[in-house]
Design a protein that fits this description.
Elements: E1 5-9, H1 15-25, E2 29-32, H2 46-54, E3 59-62, H3 70-77, H4 81-92, H5 95-109, E4 114-118, H6 127-139, E5 143-146
Parallel strand pairs: 1-4, 1-5, 2-3, 2-4
Helix pairs in contact: 3-4, 5-6
Length: 151
């Protein structure tokens, strides 16, 4: 069986712990699925994150089109996960999201050890779970959620 599609969230986690977790799992490509790849948390803004994973010979790709729209992020922040799912389902029907989901599927099909990154620690509260489920269904592989130790 091929490697799973990994996911990870960085909520309550230091950047070094995320990097260690990615390295230990043998991740080859980190795919950032945030709409806004900026963070007040040290090490998680796009350029810092890309540099951190490059130091481990892990590639970095930002697929902004797979990020959650602002109203979906607001629903997640307020604990309205059903609303997040509804909003994100609509977003996945947009041309950009469909194109980037196809791009991600191609990368995973090629056998790369890919990990999806977003903020939320728990995948069931995050759109990355929805992305992972779609890609894994297309490719016929499992998803494995990685958890770095919290701060």
């Amino acid at each position: 069986m091929s490697a799973p599609l990994f996911t990870i969230g960085y909520e309550q986690v230091a950047s070094g712990a995320v990097l260690d977790t990615l390295r230990t799992a043998g991740v080859e490509l980190l795919v950032d699925v945030r709409a806004v790849a900026a963070s007040r948390r040290a090490g998680f803004s796009k350029s810092q994150l890309a540099a951190g994973v490059a130091g481990l010979d892990i590639g970095y790709l930002h697929l902004r089109g797979l990020g959650t729209p602002a109203e979906g992020r607001q629903a997640a922040r307020t604990g309205h996960y059903g609303e997040l799912r509804r909003i994100y389902d609509l977003h996945l029907a947009t041309p950009t999201a469909r194109e980037q989901l196809d791009e991600l599927t191609t990368l995973v099909k090629a056998g790369r050890r890919v990990c999806l990154l977003c903020y939320e620690r728990h995948p069931e509260h995050c759109h990355r779970q929805m992305i992972a489920d779609l890609v894994c269904e297309r490719v016929g592989m499992p998803v494995e959620h990685l958890f770095a130790p919290p701060v």
